[in-house]
Amino acid sequence: MLSAFGRAFKTPDLRNKLLFTLAIIVIYRAGTFIPAPGVDYGNVQQCLALGGTTGGIYDMVNLFSGGALLQLSIFALGVMPYITASIIVQLLRVVIPRFQELHQEGGQGQQKLTQYTRYLTIGLAMLNATTIISLARSGTLLGNCPLPIIPDDSILMIVLLIFTLTAGTGIIMWLGEQITEKGVGNGMSLLIFTSIAASFPSALGDIFRTQGWAVFAGILLVGLLVIIAVVFVEQSQRRIPVQYAKRMIGRRTIGGTTTYIPLKVNMSGVIPVIFASSLLMLPGLLAEFNTPSDGTAPPAWVNWISTYLVSGDHPIYMVAYFLLIVGFSYFYASITFNPQEVSDNMKRYGGFIPGIRAGRPTERYLSYVLYRITLPGSLYLGIVAMIPLIALVLVDANQNFPFGGTSLLIVVGVGLDTIKQIDAQLQQRHYEGLLR
């Protein structure tokens, strides 16, 4: 493995790509520590030292931004606006025929969808920036901290802050695209990988200081086992054989080859976890808005939500979280893989699944395999996502427990994808790859 990395750096063009990627990552990490204008950085650090945090979805945003959100830096929004915009554009393909047509047009259509994603990212960034600045002004962003986070809350300063955070998201989006075009791997995925990996040392350090050597060693062992399981499942796929009939075009014989359709066990990736976390935040926000500010007793339904659907260590919350992940896994898999489209393409080019008639029977067979293979994938995703909640109960860890949930799925998935891309480029140059 180390010798393969050495060969990668000895290849001039691959070395330049790797160094360019590392340089962009350094710039991105530096931006997470530059405070936004008008923010009292000293008060922010004192509020964080007191344990101030909003929890819930903002813990996830803070995780994806590499801690920049709770630092209120220029990159405070991180990549979350881009992720949300990408998911929305994918979902709109189901309800807007024009988006589906663009998706089927190839490269030119994909460029148009990418442009729509950029516009939507900027719009969502402005909305998120306004929300976060409002929370910071009221003191609720850092757990009702009494210290002023934004001492000068004039209109001009608020507009400047919104513009700065939105511009920071635009710069992050540009940095990710530069990595994709001139570096190695998917740019936005690598930036998310960097943000999450940067939080691992502090999270493990907190566990070591509060729980001691025994718990720390046990968590490392569990983490190793979970990583092995995630790698195994993420690499697993169901290969459906496809046979293409021979065709005579002039004097040439075309076709007659055998290939396969790879269906991953976890086709949805980490998207169902993000969906489920966001959806479970809505009852808590609704209850917060309906809690009387004059000290009177809140309604019964507000108390029920605050008791059962806000705290991650309650069994009802865990069951709801698990079921939502399973449901969203089926929903997202049905969007990303269209059996009818695959069946029509196979029929158009003379392909068929051995033993299955072309057309409608092939579509039904693909749907049958898709729904069956999604079941273990969704259960696996739900179990991995539950690990931080279980750790919250057993070892009093926080929601960003490093070995489980969204963080580990993204780190392992992006790591595997990046290694495969480096491996493919090494093999193109007649070198032995990273993977054996």
TrEMBL record:
One of its GO terms (biological process) is intracellular protein transmembrane transport. The keyword Membrane applies. Component of the Sec protein translocase complex. Heterotrimer consisting of SecY, SecE and SecG subunits. The heterotrimers can form oligomers, although 1 heterotrimer is thought to be able to translocate proteins. Interacts with the ribosome. Interacts with SecDF, and other proteins may be involved. Interacts with SecA. It comes from the Bacteria. This is Protein translocase subunit SecY. Keywords: Cell membrane, Membrane, Protein transport, Translocation, Transmembrane, Transmembrane helix, Transport. It is found in: Cell membrane; Membrane.
